[in-house]
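Cross-check.
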Amino acid sequence: MIINKILNVDDYYFDVFMSISEALTGLSANELQSTGLATDYYTYILKSLEGPTFVEFLTISKDILDKATTKNELKNAITSQIIANSGMNDMAGKLMTLWYLGTWEGAYINDRSYKEGLVWNVMHAHPPGAKQPGYKSWNIQPVNSNS
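Predicted model, tokenized:
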């Protein structure tokens, strides 16, 4: 079983949401939680979608997470049961976009979702106009710079 007990949110599917988010984004649940938006994202999706669509996605995800005992089994199950299924693939894509860009169907979730998008950490950058890199940051050579 790969489902991690996450936070103390009193909802059956929240742990599944976080565990499948971890598997899809490639980042740990702690990294996802550090955005401070996990419960915001979860409740936003619940309110934005028809319940059965999201519940179906989470039910399939829970089944995958319960049965997978290794990371390789998890990857193969996600590929065959979520990515290969057009409806589930769409949901997975929206979920990854939510975490990385802070948007759901092109709209920001709230005023923090842009600033806390995972894309900024992956790029070793900061969200322009939202978080500044700090005094004298221009004097530090960029990560992976060849110059």
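The longest strand covers residues 103-104. The two ends are 46 Å apart (CA to CA). Passed to J.P. for a second look.
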